[in-house]
């Protein structure tokens, strides 16, 4: 088993359909009853509401997209932030190839199956977001990785590791920044944060996003290693 820390950066969908969906689900507040009040809302506040619904696609794998993936196993590190116009599917394929190489997974022609010499064990902070989002994007884009990847029904501790759950427990949270600082590990949040990623991507700051993405995985792996030592 190869332990690999993973972190994603996601953005709203870049298709016309994604923008239309954000418009379609935007409705006036139910508290507005009068026609003139509803029309006033559409005239003055609907644009901001549409923008808000569109931004939320960063958390919705049906409409949002992955723009950056970072990995580390403690000895090796890889990160890729795709540029505007570059394929999300190609990013997923490159991710799969890196994990395949790290785990020495080879294809068996006779069995027409993948021979797993070392199964990847993914670790993330708030893994309940990153891993299901990535799996769902694989489904949307029709990509099958050359290894078993945790589905949304996978179990933390058995199928993958989560530093947030290991520290805070089920149903509770702790930020990566606070956990790292509490353990004396440098915080990865010394530049941008997740809320600024889309703006940075639109501005073409791909290297900045990649560096931020990779810092998160490096910090996650250091926290995981600390936790493993006291088990």
What secondary-structure arrangement, pairings included, does this model have?
Layout: E1 2-11, H1 16-24, H2 35-44, H3 46-55, E2 65-72, E3 77-81, H4 88-102, E4 106-108, E5 113-115, E6 120-124, H5 127-141, E7 161-162, H6 163-168, H7 176-182, H8 197-202, H9 206-229
Parallel strand pairs: 1-6, 6-7
Antiparallel strand pairs: 1-2, 2-3, 4-5
Helix pairs in contact: 1-3
What is shown here, in short?
The protein has 231 residues and is an alpha/beta fold. Helices cover 44% and strands 16% of the residues. The chain is built from nine helices and seven strands, in the order βαααββαβββαβαααα.
Describe this structure in words.
This protein is of the alpha/beta class and 231 residues long. It has one domain (2-9, 72-229): Ribonuclease H-like superfamily/Ribonuclease H (Nucleotidyltransferase, domain 5, 2-Layer Sandwich). The protein is 44% helix and 16% strand. The chain has nine helices and seven strands. The protein has helices at 16-24, 35-44, 46-55, 88-102, 127-141, 163-168, 176-182, 197-202, 206-229, and strands at residues 2-11, 65-72, 77-81, 106-108, 113-115, 120-124, 161-162. It has a five-stranded mixed β-sheet with strand order 3-2-1-6-7, with helices on both faces. A two-stranded antiparallel sheet has the order 4-5. A hairpin with a 4-residue loop joins strand 4 (106-108) and strand 5 (113-115). Helix 1 (16-24) packs across helix 3 (46-55). The chain is globular and about 65 Å long. Mean pLDDT is 92; it is low at 109-116.
């Amino acid at each position: 088993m190869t332990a690999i820390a993973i972190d994603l950066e996601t953005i709203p969908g870049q298709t016309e359909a994604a923008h239309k969906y954000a418009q379609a689900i935007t409705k006036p507040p139910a508290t507005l009853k009068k026609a003139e009040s509803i029309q006033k809302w559409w005239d003055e506040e609907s644009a901001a509401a549409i923008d808000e619904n569109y931004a939320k696609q960063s958390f919705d794998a049906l409409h949002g997209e992955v723009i950056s993936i970072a990995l580390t196993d403690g000895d090796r590190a890889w990160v890729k932030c795709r540029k505007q116009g570059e394929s999300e599917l190609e990013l997923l394929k490159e991710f799969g190839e890196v994990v395949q190489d790290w785990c020495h997974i080879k294809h068996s022609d006779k069995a027409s199956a993948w021979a797993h010499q070392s199964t990847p064990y993914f670790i993330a902070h708030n893994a309940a977001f990153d891993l299901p989002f990535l799996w769902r994007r694989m489904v949307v884009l029709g990509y099958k990785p050359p290894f078993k990847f945790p589905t949304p029904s996978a179990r933390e501790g058995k199928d993958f590791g989560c530093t947030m759950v290991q520290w805070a427990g089920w149903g509770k949270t702790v930020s990566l920044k606070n956990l790292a600082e509490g353990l004396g590990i440098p915080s990865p949040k010394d530049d941008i944060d997740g809320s600024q990623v889309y703006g940075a991507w639109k501005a073409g700051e791909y290297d900045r996003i990649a560096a931020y993405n990779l810092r998160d995985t490096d910090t996650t792996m250091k926290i995981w290693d600390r936790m493993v030592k006291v088990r």
